Write a sequence for this structure.
């Protein structure tokens, strides 16, 4: 009987193994960089407001996914506004209620933590001006519009542009008064 010896060291596969190990490490490192990408990216506010205005369900879901994977300080307010905006779109009724409630709690929580943030008041005002009356989510409209006027000059340019665009259709915001 012949004895067969097995060895883990296969000299003739040495170069191929090196290449395989390098390729595996490279693949893993690029995947980690892809997965962690949104954590280090700033939110594109102009795109956020474009998505809010569009009312396209797919765009809103994509923006929600992007925000959920980010670590921005406005995360809760943005998610809340998008979820409430999503509730106004053609989705099943049980999803509408759940989406609105979740969004409501997130946006109101963000406002409770930072009540002087004019952008948060603008987000809430946009929702309040378009929510159906039976929801009874319109008691802060006038106060929110005053907060937006007060904070307008100190907001980032992308937010100012969004407010100016929104003021064309708003009952409470006027572009002329914002620029004074």
């Amino acid at each position: 009987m012949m004895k067969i010896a097995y060895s883990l060291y296969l000299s003739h596969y040495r170069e191929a193994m090196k290449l395989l190990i390098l390729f595996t490490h490279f693949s893993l490192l690029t995947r980690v960089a892809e997965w962690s990408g949104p954590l280090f990216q700033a939110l594109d506010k102009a795109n956020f407001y474009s998505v809010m205005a569009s009312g396209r369900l797919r765009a809103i879901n994509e923006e929600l996914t992007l925000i959920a994977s980010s670590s921005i300080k406005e995360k809760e307010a943005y998610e809340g506004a998008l979820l409430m905006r999503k509730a106004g779109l053609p989705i099943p009724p049980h999803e509408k209620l759940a989406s609105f409630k979740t969004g409501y709690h997130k946006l109101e929580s963000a406002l409770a933590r930072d009540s002087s943030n004019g952008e948060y008041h603008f987000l809430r005002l946009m929702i309040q001006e378009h929510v159906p009356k039976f929801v009874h989510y319109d008691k802060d409209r006038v106060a929110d519009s005053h907060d937006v006027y007060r904070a307008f000059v100190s907001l980032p340019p992308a937010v100012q542009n969004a407010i100016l665009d929104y003021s064309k259709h708003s009952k409470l915001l006027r572009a002329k008064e914002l620029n004074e």
Summary: The longest helix spans residues 14-36. The mean pLDDT is 85. The chain has one domain: 43-178.
